[in-house]
Design goal:
The chain has two domains: 139 residues, Rossmann fold; 73 residues, Transcription Termination Factor Rho, Rna-binding Domain, Chain A, Domain 1, CATH 1.10.720. 38% of the residues are buried. The chain is globular, with a radius of gyration of 18 Å. Helix 4 runs parallel beside helix 6. The two termini are 17 Å apart. The model has no long low-confidence stretch (mean pLDDT 94). It has nine helices and six strands. With 238 residues, it is an alpha/beta fold. Strands 3-2-1-4-5-6 form a six-stranded parallel sheet, sandwiched between helices.
């Protein structure tokens, strides 16, 4: 059931959310997850390099960086924070070990889990779209500080559908959800991502989390947290 609107605009049927700077602190990703993967990469490749799944990913690394050893290319991409699909896949595999053995717990802002639960109870379809792999997204929400939130979500989208600054990626999401773009609300802290979503016809809202210091773009509706999103777009309240 779509959330009604008071303005006569198309009702919101689905919410697609970014992670970093939106549901979770930027510092958690940059200061916890990324260093964890960087420190574990060499040992992980030595221990797991013969696994068919990982071997296939390393072949993709060789294709994208033919002049470098795969390990060197991965370290370089990590240092550059490159949005490269094979890197994100390997990071996700490393993080899985940390989440499953309890060394990692997915950070969420305190308002996120109650709001997501309220939106799901209200009939909204919830999705994630992040540059991190879909597998990594599921780990963060599955092993979060608020418990296992994976059952709340319909889909997890990553860069395999396209980059987050291309309008075509958001058209693919709308097609995958079998919904008109105007019935999908995309939440992110990054103005360029919101620009692309808006170009594809999605509704947008920029999260301005005080702790993350995001600067408003002036081009999209703004909210400081998920309850403010709910108030602005007439979504179910906690």
């Amino acid at each position: 059931m779509a959330a009604p609107t008071a303005s006569g605009a198309a009702p919101t049927a689905a919410v697609v959310t970014d992670i970093e700077g939106t549901t979770s602190a930027i510092s958690f990703v940059k200061d916890t997850l990324f260093p964890f993967a960087e420190a574990a990469l060499d040992g992980f490749l030595e221990a797991q390099g013969s696994r068919p799944e990982l071997a296939a990913i390393l072949e993709e690394v060789r294709r994208l960086a033919p002049d470098e050893a795969p390990r060197d290319a991965l370290h370089r991409w990590m240092a550059e924070d490159a949005k490269v699909t094979p890197l994100k896949a390997i990071q996700g595999m490393i993080w899985r070990q940390g989440f499953e053995d309890g060394r990692l717990r997915g950070h969420l802002y305190p308002d996120v889990a109650p709001s997501l639960r309220a939106w799901a109870r209200g009939g909204l379809r919830l999705c994630v779209y992040s540059s991190g792999s879909a597998e990594a997204q599921e780990l963060l929400f599955g092993y979060s500080v608020a418990g296992d939130l994976r059952p709340l979500f319909t889909r997890f989208f990553d860069t395999r559908i396209g980059t987050k600054r291309e309008a075509g990626s958001y058209r693919t999401i709308a097609a995958g959800l079998h919904l008109p773009a105007a019935e999908i609300l995309f939440l992110s802290d990054i103005a360029a991502e919101l620009d692309a979503a808006a170009a594809a016809g999605l509704r947008t809202c920029q999260l301005l989390r005080p702790a993350d210091g995001t600067q408003p773009s002036g081009r999209h509706p703004e909210a400081a947290d998920f309850p403010a999103v709910a108030a602005r777009f007439s979504l179910p309240r906690v």
